[in-house]
Amino acid sequence: MSVQTALDNIWLRPCERWAHTEYSMGYHHEYMKKMAGVDSSHPEFHVRVHDALQFDFQWGTNDGLTNWGTAGRTTDMGHAEYAADGSDMRPLQESPFKTVEEVWAFDAVAEYGLPDFEEQVQNYETSIQNARVGSPHQLTTGGSYKTIVSGAIQSFGWEMLLLGAADAAKMEKVFDSFFRRTLFHMEAWAKTSAEVMIQHDDFVWSEGPFMHPEIYRKVIIPRYAELWKPIHAAGKKVLFCSDADYTVFVDDLTEAGADGFIFEPFVDFGMMAERFGQSHCLVGSFVDCRDLTFRNEERVKEDVERTFTALENCRGAILAVGNHLPPNIPPEMLDLYYGRLLPRLAKGAE
Question: What is the pLDDT of residue 80?
Fold first, then answer.
């Protein structure tokens, strides 16, 4: 495991092994202690866990110094129970937006403001340097989470966002305001030493687009292209990330300049490997967390094998269970998964 392994896979350079990461591993406290061989209070606990699981990459974004919740209006849609103890459950709160006209009149820059640019650059640089100390053998990324659509979701909630998006012309200037905020922060990230950016935007559902496709192609994705210009000018790479099924927009994202894709099993790994494996870094696999959770051992074995077969068409990849490792996965299924995956990361391994 190494930073260089992640960089080589993202840059599509020849290297000895595929990179590896996982999401939500932190919920598996007892399993992590087993892998680390020390208690969680040990100063090198996380370093030992990441090294034992051969992590090369740490998913990370940072939306900047401004707290939207204190700076302006947001909609807290609550949170379902995910953690084993239910500590992350949060009830739905009433939206401050009562009419669609309020949505169409909204400007994210005016609402939340922007920090001092140089202060933001320094804050980002400090965060990256701290991450390198905490995870010395893993590449930690910069980037934005609430890029455009995810920003609108946090501000308006789903109901008011969907009502607003029914009028694409009126909604474009609203989306543009989120874009302008994010551009400020991507320009700040471009000034840092972070090598790779994640552009996260949950802009589709499991069934695909929830807005008219032309809103994506004429309003959203062209603005992604503008966000990526300062990043590419600084010699950095951009990995696009969204939950759910964005298959229909992968060609558009490619044209906009994405260097790689982070995706869930809703997006077919085999298709991505066949069509984009020679030109883009792929972050994911065939493995689905639901099969791990419900002890579908044969399917997990099969999907690990299918993943490595698909990688024969690829130049760079970071392997992961794309829809996370929820806390109710049995430890023995993690053993099965890692036992099948980790020995195969070295290219040419059988």
Answer: 46
SS (H, E, C) the chain: CCHHHHHHHHCCCCCCECEECCCCHHHCHHHHHHHHCCCCCCCCHHHHHHHHCCCCEECCCCCCCCCHHHHCCCCCCCECCCCCCCCCCECCCCCCCCCHHHHHCCCHHHHHCCCCHHHHHHHHHHHHHHHHHHCCCCEECEEECCCCHHHHHHHHHHHHHHHHHCCHHHHHHHHHHHHHHHHHHHHHHHCCCCCEEEEECCCCECCECCCCHHHHHHHHHHHHHHHHHHHHHCCCEEEEECCCCCHHHHHHHHHHCCCEEECCCCCCHHHHHHHHCCCCEEEECCCCHHHHHCCCHHHHHHHHHHHHHHHHHCCCEEECCCCCCCCCCCHHHHHHHHHHHHHHCECCCC
Domain ranges of the chain: 3-344
- Predicted TM-score of the model (pTM): 0.96
**pLDDT band, residue 76 (cuts 50/70/90):** confident
pLDDT band of 93, cuts 50, 70, 90:
confident
Average pLDDT over residues 26-33: 96
Q: How confident is the model at residue 94 (pLDDT cuts 50, 70, 90)?
A: confident
Cα 286 to Cα 133, 248, 322, distances in angstroms: 32, 18, 8
- Give per-residue pLDDT as tens, 119-129: 999 999 999 99
Q: Pick one of 3.20.20.210, 3.40.190.10, 3.55.50.30, 3.40.50.720 as the CATH number of 3-344.
A: 3.20.20.210
